[in-house]
Amino acid sequence: MAVEWGLSPRICEGDCAVLKRGDVFKAVAVLRQRKIIFEKQGFYLDNAIGHVYGTTFEVTSDGNLQPKRQVEETTTETKEAGTDNRNIVDDGKSQKLTHDDIKALKDKGIKGQEIVQQLIENSTTFRDKTEFAQDKYIKKKKKKYEAVITIVKPSTRILSTMYYAREPGKIIHLRYDTLAQMLTLGNVRAGNKMIVMETCAGLVLGAVMERMGGYGSIIQMYPGGGPIRAATSCFGFPKPFFNNLHEFPLSKVDSLLCGTLSLETLPSEPEDTALTEEETNGLVDEKQTSVQGTEEESSAETAMEINQTEEQETMDINAEDAEFKENKERENKENVREKQRKQWERTKKLTEAAALLREKNADGLLVASKFHPTPLLLSLLEFVAPSRPFVVYCQYKEPLLECYTKLRERGGVVNLKLSETWLRSYQVLPDRSHPKLTMSGGGGYILSGITVVLDKGKSDSSNLEALKMEEPSSKRCKVQDLCC
Amino acid sequence: MSFVEYGDTIKDGDTAIVFLGHESMFPVKVQHGGVTQTKYGVIRHSTDLIGKKYGSKVTCSKGGWVFILHPTPELWTVNLPHRTQILYSTDISVITMMLELKPGSIVCESGTGSGSLSHALIRTVAPTGHLYTVEFHQQRAEKAKEEFREHGVEHLVTVTNQDVCKNGFGVSGIADAVFLDIPSPWEAIGHAKSALKAEGGRICSFSPCIEQVQRTCLAMEEYGFTEINTLEILLRVYNVRTISLQIPDLGKAAEDNSSAGFDSSNPSNQGSPGTNLQQGTVQFKSGVPLKEMVGHTGYLTFATKSLF
Description:
The complex is a heterodimer of chains A (484) and B (308).
Chain A: E1 16-21, E2 24-29, E3 35-38, E4 41-44, E5 56-59, E6 65-67, H1 99-107, H2 112-121, H3 131-145, E7 148-152, H4 156-166, H5 176-185, E8 193-198, H6 203-212, E9 217-222, H7 230-234, E10 245-249, H8 253-258, H9 270-295, H10 312-319, H11 321-326, H12 328-358, E11 364-368, H13 373-380, E12 389-394, H14 398-410, E13 413-427, E14 434-435, E15 445-451, H15 458-470, H16 473-483
Parallel strand pairs in A: 8-9, 8-11, 9-10, 11-12
Antiparallel strand pairs in A: 1-2, 1-7, 3-4, 5-6, 5-7, 12-15, 13-14, 13-15
Helix pairs in contact in A: 2-3, 13-14
Chain B: E1 15-21, E2 24-29, E3 35-38, E4 41-44, H1 45-49, E5 57-59, E6 65-69, H2 73-77, H3 89-98, E7 106-110, H4 116-125, E8 130-134, H5 138-150, E9 157-160, H6 164-167, E10 177-180, H7 189-195, E11 201-207, H8 210-222, E12 225-246, H9 254-257, H10 262-265, E13 274-276, E14 281-289, E15 299-305
Parallel strand pairs in B: 7-8, 7-10, 8-9, 10-11
Antiparallel strand pairs in B: 1-2, 1-6, 3-4, 5-6, 11-15, 12-14, 12-15, 13-14
């Protein structure tokens, strides 16, 4: 089970990698002769293969990548600078180069670095700007004209930052520092048996898998037809990591808890066939969006170009679309067989997951979903062993208030805590340090706690109530006084 | 029990957390024949603890009771004996994620201090990773070693008693990540760089003052670190309370009240927010921020050691 993952520092064909330009990230699959569009630039990754992760590349005019060595600082050392801006007038004529000139330079395939140099030389006000303003000017122009791309290995840090910046809606606005809190409060580590219920495109699942490093087991509870793992696939986990990843449909939790879940009858159940169909539809949709993604970057829906399929066969179908149509009939027959095989596998996996849940000894529960947290918690906590942490994320505070109250009524939990984190970034430069101008307004809320042995019986619950009242009552009065 | 593995039952030699209620708890070393005093009475280890399940309710001699919890780095952080100022779980969470730690990671840390972060790092890099922690204060270094032994994690950590600014971490070219919580981190950046793997790695420095951050950032730049990024993380905790606000008496006749104001928006008295016109109050649930919160712990500066 022990898998040394992430040891190969070199970029290989078929890897999941992340492109980075400035603070912008994009997850891609490293494939030969496949055009990638990133930050309005098209290029091929072929040349990057074999280089070490963390290498910075320059995009050449023919769309190839060329490794960039240590940045040779633009030597504007003979610095001449003004002290203030009292004589700088915005007449719109300070830049001598016109739009057409700049375009001509670009079309000639001149390096971005030289364009920046030209812009500086042709700016009449540059010399009068203060040293700081000159710095800022150069930085801004560099960002625009010097296209350098770093290829990095995916990690929770990178993917959660990327998702929060690019597609916060897909991860229900779970900010990366909030995800970090969840992993820590949930004591996620190698060897655990974790229950994860998320609708964050598989990002939370991926984060948990990374922290468990292939040791222990995870049961993912999913709504609808199947678990969504688009973000999980961006991590590029090795295959063995999936050996102990189980999934269980949320819609069967109740029958599992009541003991009425019957696995033998599952494959013939009509609703199960419906699920399979739904899944196929899902795949087609994904294929379409991934095709769009190569054509137009602007579409907000298409951050990830990695195919969201797990099966090799489906990937091949994606690649050979024309052939796919010709062989449709044959495919259809195969599909039926494939479906049956899949269904059988699903039942087997379901049986395993159900058995794991029935033991009711999970080491933790992480919930980050678009659903109301209260019913999820009240049911899923049944599967968790005593003295284990649980963490619920919600984009809004109010549902967690109710969840808090209901958990208190239920009992079997201690150390309940409702919290939120604020994240503030700083610009640190000599004589110019200050908090960044903008900060994130909301990264969601977290309710965490620890399970304890749940006593059944009235006397105990009233006793629990007594304990609850004993401690915070004085505090509660104070708070109420404050509010009234 | 161990800090890196859950156990079901309490055993002799375990460190357990006695939970009294509402964030009032303390650690206890379980020993045959040992006794622990609480405000609810005595707990006798041999009969009350050993062999019981973690998470059980234990009745004390005066009839009151407590819960016994399995130790975790997070519970240890709020219960450990302070030898220094410590890092709390909010900062620790971000440090762990931003340093990209996972099972198998090799981490260097200085100073060890009270071992709050150390326990969290060990938890995350276990079972195949390792923590090299450097503490220049001899007594603290020894105390930390003793704790790691008691907590069953000594095989995952090496404590070195030396000055990291002068002598470095005692390892070179093997670390995936370095963490610095020392008064002059800029003096240790060079050592941090040589401790990190040749193909790169991540570094974090924790400093309370912005002047320290500035010098650290300059040093990082000088040593060729990239992606230098400083941030601050603040925890806001909310108390869940039911609040009642009085409805002002504007002199309206009693009959009019039913058709005006709050009542119209919430005619059926279901759930919260509820109105009670007899008493003239409106009740609702609220997440009330604590009267005082931690406004600043320290700035976290992260950077990447790049290839060149």
